[in-house]
């Protein structure tokens, strides 16, 4: 397995199935990849021999800072959370930071370097890639897509990170949410364009490329930013994308199904700028009743905690 379409395994719920049940739910739905937001030992144990590939986040900003400041901590982290499971668990990427703010971004590259060096020492740096996951607001001028560039206040961090990814042949992880773009600007963004429905075509006059959905336009803006950062060969992995099924503006089952099925079906075609497969992780497996923030945050799941689907979705064979 280990496919190009995955689902993020959120754990911010007090009512979720056991980790071994969750792995079985992935397998029974043909979901070939998973993202976990910390090195959860029960989840990693349940993944042994499953054939499901995984992105492991190192944890929050404190964990990233610890890895940045201490090469031996990075070596210990790799020993405990990678070597202890490899190769029974197919670890694809280590995410050093998820949507860290400008105040914490200075720690990302040193932490990535230390984790990478630990993987080199363990003989795993060709098999497992080190990256970080960025929010879409790290990109400015995202319309038209060819104008995409890393935000001026983040360039000092993102340009060296992009160079590191190029040098280590690693992808950039990007969290791409048409939902939030649409919610914040419904006047200018048609709902059908945001949810992979037909009816809207947008042309980028500078590149000559045409777009029929917002998701591909957003991903290509990330590619444009990487090019401007001097890293045109770095590929993008969409490490999160989703749409809430309840709890707020335009958050309903129909829109969520249309968007998430569109994301899954889009995987095999890639984007106008980068045709081919686009590895993508839908957020998230379950509705998470303890997730903080807006009410919509608790309604991104494909499944209820009792493992029944929130709506029907089909994962094609990997």
UniProtKB/TrEMBL annotation:
Q: Which family does it belong to?
A: Belongs to the glycosyl hydrolase 17 family.
The entry's keywords = Glycosidase, Hydrolase
Q: Which residues cross the membrane?
A: none
Magnesium is among the record's keywords: no
GO molecular function terms noted in the UniProt entry: glucan endo-1,3-beta-D-glucosidase activity
Its GO biological process annotations read:
carbohydrate metabolic process
Q: What is this protein called?
A: Uncharacterized protein
Upper taxonomic lineage: Eukaryota, Viridiplantae, Streptophyta, Embryophyta, Tracheophyta
Mind telling me which PANTHER family this protein's record contains? GLUCAN ENDO-1,3-BETA-GLUCOSIDASE BG1-RELATED-RELATED (PTHR32227)
This protein's record includes keyword Hydrolase: yes
């Amino acid at each position: 397995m280990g496919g190009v379409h995955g689902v993020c395994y959120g754990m911010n719920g007090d009512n979720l199935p056991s980790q071994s049940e969750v792995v079985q739910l992935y397998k029974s739905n043909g979901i070939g990849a998973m993202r976990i937001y910390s090195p959860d030992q029960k989840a990693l144990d349940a993944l042994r021999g499953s054939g499901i590939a995984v992105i492991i986040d190192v944890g929050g900003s404190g964990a990233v800072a610890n890895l940045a400041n201490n090469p031996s901590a990075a070596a210990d982290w790799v020993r405990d959370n990678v070597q202890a499971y490899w190769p029974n668990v197919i670890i694809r990427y280590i995410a050093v930071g998820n949507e860290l703010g400008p105040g914490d971004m200075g720690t990302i590259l040193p932490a990535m370097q230390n984790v990478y060096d630990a993987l080199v020492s363990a003989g795993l740096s060709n098999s497992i890639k080190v990256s970080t996951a960025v929010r879409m607001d790290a990109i400015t001028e995202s319309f038209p897509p060819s104008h995409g560039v890393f935000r001026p206040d983040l360039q000092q961090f993102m340009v060296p990170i992009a160079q590191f990814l190029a040098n280590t042949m690693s992808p950039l992880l990007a969290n791409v949410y048409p939902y939030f773009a649409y919610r914040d600007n419904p006047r200018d963004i048609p709902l059908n364009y945001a949810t992979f429905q037909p009816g809207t075509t947008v042309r980028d006059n500078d590149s000559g490329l045409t777009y029929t959905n917002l998701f591909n336009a957003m991903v290509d803006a990330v590619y444009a930013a990487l090019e401007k950062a001097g890293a045109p060969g770095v590929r993008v992995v969409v490490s999160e994308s989703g749409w809430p099924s309840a709890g707020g503006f335009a958050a309903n089952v129909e829109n969520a199904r249309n968007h998430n099925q569109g994301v899954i079906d889009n995987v095999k075609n890639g984007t106008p700028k980068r045709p081919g497969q686009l590895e993508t992780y839908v957020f998230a497996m379950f509705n998470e009743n303890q997730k903080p923030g807006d009410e919509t945050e608790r309604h991104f799941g494909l499944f209820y905690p009792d493992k029944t689907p929130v709506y029907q979705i089909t994962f094609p064979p990997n």
